[in-house]
Amino acid sequence: MIDFSSFHKLSYGLYLICSEFEGNKSGYAGNTGFQVTASPSVIAVSCNKDNYTCETIQKSKKFSLSVLQKELDVAIVGDFGFKSSADFDKFEKHEYKIGELGIPVVTDSCIAALECEVINEVDCGSHILFIGEVKVAEKLNDNPPLTYDYYHQHYKMLAPKNAPTYIDPEKLIEETADEKKSEDSANKEAAEHVCIICGYTYDPAIGEPSMGIPPGTPFEDLPEEFICPICSAGKDYFKEV
Ligand code: FE
């Protein structure tokens, strides 16, 4: 038997992994980045084959890994984690530089950045594990790193669909609903709604300041054109929790 919630007990950070081939920049948000050996300095990242970036890394044989900081605007995770580089320019809104290996390195909301040359890749089915030797490493500042746990708890977002840690949100929503069954649900106006695409949670008590929606606005009163601020899904994609 596999209890999927036990996977949430594993500890991770959250990273922006980028590459570029023949002028096409791409990048994605991933939690699976870790150091493999100290000497030489080697790290590994797991990349979904459906990610545009996967092919870019396979062709360029290079990738950068930027470490996200704890306090940030989640839009950067939304842009890199829930949209595709194939149809969205992830680098337009977020600060980056071209690193020494000639690939994009995101500096926006990040505390350190590594540039790597791929020395091996392992086909893991849905994902490719890229193993890279670190050629450039730079500390950007001393802010604390974002942990995956903090990301879930504080920003209330789920794993991006292509993440190795992805769990069907429907399953998690059912669990949450069950947990709350015994609670008094009379105050429907205060009910939170979760985006089933990305896991963003709309809390009426907070509203959505980034979209000019004040605290105290029930989900039902949101304009019909309301979209998820993270993944742009419409109201139909929200479920009450
Ligand atoms: Fe969403």
Task: Give a short synopsis of this structure.
The chain has 241 residues and is of the alpha+beta class. It has four helices and twelve strands.
Average per-residue pLDDT, rounded, comes to: 88
What is the CATH architecture assignment of the largest domain?
Answer: Roll
Helical fraction equals: 10-25%
Q: Tell me the number of helical segments per DSSP (H or I, 4 or more residues long).
A: 4
Spatial gap, N to C terminus:
27 Å
Shape annotation: globular
**Lateral strand order in the biggest sheet:** 2-1-5-8-9-4-3
Number of domains: 2
In CATH terms, the superfamily of the largest domain is Electron Transport, Fmn-binding Protein, Chain A
Determine and state the CATH class of the largest domain.
Mainly Beta
Low-confidence parts lasting 5 or more residues at pLDDT below 50?
none
**Strands, count:** 12
> What is the string of SSEs from the N terminus onward?
EEEEHEHEEEEHHEEE
Describe the structure in your own words.
The chain is α+β, with helices and mostly antiparallel strands. The chain folds into two domains: 8-148, Pnp Oxidase, Chain A; 168-181 and 188-240, Rubrerythrin, domain 2 (Single Sheet). Helix content is 15%, strand content 31%. It contains four helices and twelve strands; from the N terminus they run ββββαβαββββααβββ. The protein has a seven-stranded antiparallel sheet. β1 and β2 (24-30) form a beta hairpin. The longest helix is centred in the last third of the chain and has 12 residues, at 169-180. The radius of gyration is 19 Å and the shape is globular. The two termini are 27 Å apart. The model has no long low-confidence stretch (mean pLDDT 88). The structure holds fe (iii) ion. Residues 195, 197-198, 200, 228, 230-231, 233 line the site of fe (iii) ion.
